[in-house]
What does this fold into?
Amino acid sequence: MVNRNVDRVTLRELADEGNETALDRLADLADADGDLGELGELLDEGSMHAGFLLTRRAVAAGDLRELQRISDAGYDEAGDELERLLNAPADEHRD
It folds into this structure.
């Protein structure tokens, strides 16, 4: 079994040195742990993969405000999803 703490430390060091793959892997780990705070921080650091993962969660939850926040943070596809949900017929928003 891989020690996830050591792995995260190494990934963080690599990401801090500009390795985008390490940044993406950190986002995958945060997503697997359900750590939305870390995903948000990774998005703020420029991780478009974190933006994708956050957008996927926000769309599933129908969270329009979160989609706007993600879009404002620089992940344009969140804005596209927000517009799609806003333009959907009213019947599609009912549970």
